[in-house]
Write a structure and sequence with these properties.
The protein is an all-beta fold and 205 residues long. The protein is built from no helices and 20 strands. Strand 19 and strand 20 form a beta hairpin. The protein is globular, with a radius of gyration of 15 Å. 47% of the residues are buried.
Length: 205
C-alpha cells in the first residue's frame, strides 16, 4: 500500500529540508547546519558533507553528475561539484519562494509556493520551459520516478503522484509525519524528510 513506512532514521542534523538520491546514497540538506550530507540509505550513517553554496539553502537535487542547491533566501539555483562543493553555475529560481527540485534525465523541475507551481527548467540556461499547477496549498518537495512527478504538501501532509504533462493528480497518500519537506525517488521507493521529527523516511508507493 502506498505510503507505508519501510524504514526511518534520524537526519544528520535538525531541519532536513532537502533530499536527493545519487544512485547509491541519499543527500540530505539540513538548514540547521547549512550542509549537504551524503548518507548511507541502509544505515543512516553520514559518509561526508559539503557546505551550502550560499546562506539560505533549502533543497537539493542530483542530475547524474552534480548536485543542485535550491536556495530559498537567495532565490537562486546553484549547480555544485559533488566532490569539491565548488559552484559551477547559478541562476535565478523560477519562483520567489523555491523549495526543492529534481531532475528528469534532461531538465530540472523546481517547486515553489509563491505561485504553487512545478516549473520545468533548462539546467544549462535557467530558462523556464513550462509550468504546471502543484496540488495542495504549500508544495515543498518534488521527485521524478522515470514517468511521473511526485510532490508533497507541507500543510496538507500529503504526497501526490502527478502526470508530468497535464499536472493531473494520479493518486495520493498521507505523508509519514506532520511536517514533510524533502522528497526523492530511489528507483523503487520514495524518501521524504520531516522537520518536526528530524527524520528521514523510506515509503512504499
Amino acid at each position: 500500500m502506498g505510503g507505508t513506512v519501510i524504514r526511518s532514521f534520524a537526519a544528520p542534523a535538525n531541519s532536513p529540508t532537502g533530499l536527493a538520491f545519487d544512485g547509491r546514497c541519499l543527500w540530505v540538506l539540513c538548514r540547521a547546519t547549512g550542509r549537504h550530507y551524503q548518507v548511507d540509505p541502509a544505515t543512516g550513517n553520514v559518509i561526508r558533507s559539503l557546505a551550502q553554496a550560499a546562506a539560505g539553502a533549502y533543497g537539493v537535487a542530483f542530475d547524474g553528475r552534480c548536485l543542485w542547491e535550491v536556495n530559498n533566501t537567495q532565490q537562486k539555483l546553484y549547480q555544485v561539484d559533488i566532490v569539491t562543493g565548488t559552484v559551477i553555475r547559478s541562476f535565478a529560481a523560477p519562483d520567489t519562494s523555491p523549495y526543492n527540485a529534481c531532475f528528469d534525465g534532461r531538465l530540472l523541475w523546481v517547486v515553489g509556493d509563491t505561485a504553487n507551481k512545478l516549473y520545468q527548467v533548462d539546467p544549462a540556461t535557467g530558462v523556464t520551459i513550462r509550468s504546471i499547477a502543484a496540488p495542495g496549498a504549500v508544495p515543498d518537495g518534488v521527485a521524478f520516478d522515470g514517468r511521473c512527478l511526485w510532490t508533497q504538501d507541507y500543510t496538507l501532509k500529503t504526497i501526490y503522484q502527478v502526470d508530468i504533462v497535464t499536472g493531473k493528480v494520479i493518486r495520493s497518500f498521507a505523508a509519514p509525519a506532520n511536517t514533510p519537506e524533502g522528497l526523492t525517488w530511489d528507483g523503487r521507493t520514495l524518501w521524504t524528510s520531516d522537520t518536526g521529527t528530524h527524520k528521514i523516511y523510506q515509503v512504499s508507493v
